[in-house]
Every structure is written in C-alpha cells, then in structure tokens.
Amino acid sequence: MLNKAFKYAFAISGVLGTLIGILSTWLTAQTLTVPPIQQTQGKKGTVLFFINEEYGLTNVHLDTAQALLEHHPSVTIHVASFPEATKRGIGNLARAMPIFALPWSAEDHLNIYHAAMQVLLRVDPAVVVLDTYMTPAIDATRQANYVHTIIESNSMIHAFYLAQPYWSMFWKYPMLGTGFTYPVPWRQIPENIYVTARLVYSFLFDPHAREKRKYLQEHGIANPASYNLHRPDVPWFTRTMFDAGVRPEVVPANVTGVGPIILGVAPAIEQDLELVEWLSKTRTVLVNLGTLFTHNEERATVMAEALEILLLEHTKVQVLWKLQKCTDFPDDFARSLKEYGDRIRITEWLAADPLALLETGHIVASANHGGSSCFHEAIAAGVPQIIIPFWTDLYDFARTAEDSDIGVFATKDTAPQWTVEGLSEAFLRVVHGKESSRMRKNTRRLSAIAKKNRGRYVTAREIAKLAGST
Known about the structure:
The protein is an alpha/beta fold.
C-alpha cells in the first residue's frame, strides 16, 4: 500500500515539477530587461488620468489628482473614465485571473481602446497616468507611445512576483488569495507551489483570453492586455509600506512604494456634527465592510450576535455599524441589540467620510473587509484593524495586518464564512487586553511614518516632474 502511494506521489510530483519547469522558463523570459523606448510627450504640463469605474481601485488616482491640484496648480488635469466612475477558493480564483486582465469582451475591449486613443490624440498629454486594471487604455497609451506612469492600488509584491529570484514566488512569497504568512511556512510550500502554478497556467492557457488576444491583434493592437505591465522606462508607484507588508527581495529601480495614498477630506465635525458628538461619548468600534459588500440575513445575524458579545463584555464601548442589505429582509436579526440603546448605531450609509471618522481619535478599532483603501486609511489614522476578508487580495491584507501586529485576521479558519465565535474573538482581541495595547502602539508608529511623507504628495510631485511643470 505504501509502495503504491509512493508511486502516486512520485508521479504527481514529477508532473508538477515538469509544469513548474515550463512555467519558470516562461517567467524568466517575462522578466528579461526590455530596452527603454523613446516615448512621445505632448503638451507641457498636461496630465491625463485613465481610470476604471470602481472607486476602490481608482481612488489612488483621484487622490493623486487632488494632490496635483493642491501643490502643482500649473498642471492641467484631464480624467477619462466610464459614466459611472465609482468565495474564497483556488478554482474560482484561477478561473477569475484571466478576467482581471481581459474583463471585457474582445469587441468591447477594442471599442474602449479606440475611445481611449481618441482621447489621447485630442488631449495630447505630457504624461498619462494609468490604472493597472484599465487594460484598453494601457494598450492605447503604449500603441501611441505616450509618456506614462502607473499607480498600483494593491501591494507591490502582487505586481512583481516574477521579478523575485530563485523562483521564490513558488516557495517564499504567499500567492495572491492564499492568506499564508510570509515567508511561506514549510508545511504550506507544496500548496503555495500548486496555487502559483495553477494561476500562472490559467493565465497562459485560458482559451477565452487567447481568443480575445488573437482578435485584438488582428485588429491592430500589437500586444493586447499584456500580463507583464512593468517596463524599466515607466515609473510605477504603489501604496506599499514596507513597515506594514511584504518587502520584495528585488524591487525594480523605477518602482516606488510611497505608503498610503489617501484623499484629503474635510474634518468629520464639518460633515456630521451630531455623529461626532456621539462618537466622543466613549470608545467606538467602526464596522464598515466597503462600498460593494452587502449583508444577507445570515451574515447580518452572525455579526449582530458577535457585536452583542462585545457590548456585553465591554460596557464602555459603543459600535457604529454600516449595514447595507442585499435583499429586503426584516430587522429581527438586531432585536437583541435594542437593549443596548444608543451604544450601537446601525446605518445604511455614513454621512461622514470613513477616513474622517477614523481621524477623530474616537475610533479604537476599524472592522473592515481588507480592501486596500480601508487597510491603508486605518494605518494612516493610526487605528488597529479587524479584517473580515471574502476574496483574493483581501486575505493578503488580513494576513499582513496580523503579521505586522496592527490587527486581527477574523474568521481565519472559516473565511469567507462567518461564525459568531470567529468575529467576537477578533473584536475582543483588538478592543481590550495586552494585544490591543500593542496593536495601538504599532499602528500609531506606522501612522507617524506615513505622515512624514504623504504618499499622494510624493506621487503627485513625480508626476508633475514628468509633465514638465516643475
């Protein structure tokens, strides 16, 4: 029996080894240095932003545009976007990965490409600022050969796995969506190798993506939706803060981690005076799971029960919970919370910007979904986090928060499913006790570092230089 099992294991490892060899050869080819290309520079002092419609991905661009307006008034800014500029599982992730680069149909991609090309020729910018997810605009910018830069909303390592030496993307760096610690523990290396190989394989051999690329090439786009966006002559900025995240062993010379790129907002007291007065009563936990997340009745019930445990255990804590329902279910899930009176507020929307609320100093914990914006806003404000992830990169930010000792990865053993025990334990750990004190200290230290060189001003300064306005 053991001999048979050994043969199966040996066969599987052989196939996997062959696959890794093929993938590694391709990865090595992808990371070869591309010689700089002479780029076209249009009207001096003119900056064109191409952004997607999802605010969580593009707020770094809007934040940078605001910083340009504040500190570089000679720059003329144009923003091109759409009219509405606004299950954890390796199988699901593998199927989704090609979609990240080619989310549109081939025809729609081509139409957006032509629209972007028209904008480029009409505006004739000195520099184009690109969103990594807006692939048709990237294709147009590179086809027209304009000077450009990239602002990445997520972690640096996500974009530069391929640049790391010794094939370490397989065995050292946790692959996107795994939530593994860094470096990957020995026992989880085989799984990380499998996940990495499968994701890269899906990129290379997804038939729909290949068909789309073939169509786009036949219609005149030289290298459509390239998986390797990095070029040595194109400045690249990320929110990465090495004191709170994975530090890649190799960072290309033109790539800069500027830390949190955060939009300057009016003080909360100017946005919602009554809410700030309520916050000032006592220590507050903010539960805000992002703009896209909606609760079903089951999740709302689990969250309500976990918050009840928190309120029962800590009588000097109150809760502000932003709850958006996905369907019109009754409010029975919150019945037991009524006895806590004004110590808990449940609202469908926040009148004040979440960052402004964090900056009041009254929020002791930010319970969020682990989106890049929420993660970096909490760091900038010096607030520990309870991260409740439910897809891809959210698991990585949850793990980063825990590894950096600035928060807790809630429901770690059951994500994306919630349990009362998993949520309540996370709330209690962050709000009170030895861990809580340490997390507050660490987060405040990171906040002080971030405030010395604010990421949006650093990025805006470099873009202004590229535009020839300084």
